[in-house]
Amino acid sequence: MRIALIAHDKKKNDMINFAVAYAPILKEHTLFATGTTGYKIHEATNLMIKRFQSGPLGGDQQIGALIAENEMDLVLFFRDPLTAQPHEPDVSALMRLCDVYQIPLATNVASAELFIRSLDRGDLDWRKIIDEREPQK
Q1: Record-annotated residues binding substrate (predicted)?
Q2: Angle between helices 109-121 and 12-21 (to 10 degrees)
Q3: Distance between CA 110 and CA 99 in Å, rounded?
Q4: What is the per-residue pLDDT across 74-118, written as a single tens digit (0 to 9) for each?
Q5: Which site among 12, 66, 78, 123 is 20 to 30 Å from 111 CA-CA?
């Protein structure tokens, strides 16, 4: 699976702790992340991560482009719902793309754990269903 890891500033520690806890599962997949989040996860876990720009500098949009090209399977985006984000339109666009292209999106630790544990058990096969459908026009 191709998994994107994104976290707002106040949620970066949550993402790092999540990545440390689930490193044995995450290491079996292809990981992508926005700049600082990816750097901090790699520093804490030594996981191999393809890093993009930071979110406010276009990293969210870079991940969105992968979603639109059918190159992403799961997005874990730990959002800070209590702090205004200067790049909120990019965040909204990324979430909209997940909905349009049927990409599971976890926005907090609880939902991310459900996805990761299901992924580890082999319960998630929605991509087979999506990949078999007729191409969108």
Answers
A1: 8, 12, 34-37, 54-55, 87
A2: 20
A3: 19
A4: 999 999 988 877 777 788 999 999 999 999 999 999 999 999 999
A5: 66
**Does the annotation flag 29 for ligand binding?**
no
Q: How sure is the predictor about 126, in pLDDT bands with cuts at 50, 70 and 90?
A: low
| CA neighbours closer than 13 Å in the CB half-sphere of residue 76 | 29
Q: Is 12 annotated as a binding residue?
A: yes
42 assigned to a ligand binding site = no
Q: What angle do CA 120, 96, 94 make, to 5 degrees?
A: 70
Contacts of 84 (CB under 8 A, 6+ apart): none
pLDDT at residue 129 tops 70:
no
Catalytic pick from 9, 14, 60, 131?
60
State both tokens at 123: 């319960």
